[in-house]
Amino acid sequence: MLINDNLTVSSIYQQIAQKKAELANLDKEDLTKSFYEKSDSVNLTNSGNYDEEDYQRVLDKFENLDSKTRSHEQLHASLAHTKGAISYNYQMGPDGKLYATGGHVRLDTSIPKDEAAAIAKLYKLQKASAAPDGLSSADASIARAANLNKMLLLSKEQGVENAN
């Protein structure tokens, strides 16, 4: 049976099955992530015997990591246009509170057609992605891509000027 533009019913079912498999893989990844986040905890109530200094040391690490994580992501977001809010990963500390242990912000990496605006935006992207200490691989990747695109635009611009 022919539907439209050489699409058959079987090819449509095949595409649907492929999309379902992709969604199932995404669900499986999310389930795995949530399992590790839930099982990554310390149960201090069972032993009843813990050192107050250790408790405070662990709590201080959570608080410091939370502060650094939030500062890191907010610095990214403040230096360039974003495509949404900052997203944080949380872990429960020994005091029962949630602490940010990771995060990401989606930077707007679209490139305007105007070359001057594109170069200005690429400078901002490079600065925003490379600004904080402790760059992640995603940060470094965006910084490299922005720098490469900026260099390509500048070389194109210089090539045009040299041809005249």
Walk me through this protein's architecture:
The chain is mainly α and 164 residues long. The chain folds into two domains: 8-40; 49-163, no CATH class. The protein contains four helices and four strands. Helix 2 (52-79) packs antiparallel against helix 3 (115-130) and helix 3 (115-130) packs antiparallel against helix 4 (137-163). The mean pLDDT is 78.
Compact description:
The chain is mainly alpha-helical and 164 residues long.
Write the layout of secondary structure elements.
Layout: E1 2-4, E2 7-8, H1 9-39, H2 52-79, E3 87-92, E4 98-104, H3 115-130, H4 137-163
Antiparallel strand pairs: 1-2, 3-4
Helix pairs in contact: 2-3, 3-4
DSSP, total strands: 4
Q: Could you give a short account of the major beta sheet?
A: 2 strands, antiparallel
Q: What order do the helices and strands follow? A: EEHHEEHH
Radius of gyration: 24 Å
Count the DSSP helices: 4
Secondary-structure-derived class = mainly alpha
Task: Tell me, rounded to a whole number, the average pLDDT.
Answer: 78
Our estimate of the beta-strand percent is 5-15%
Total number of distinct structural domains? 2
Poorly predicted sequence stretches spanning 5 or more consecutive residues: none
Using the alpha-carbon principal axes, give the shape.
flat
Give the neighbour order of strands across the main sheet: 1-2
Distance between the termini: 60 Å
Helix percentage: 55-70%
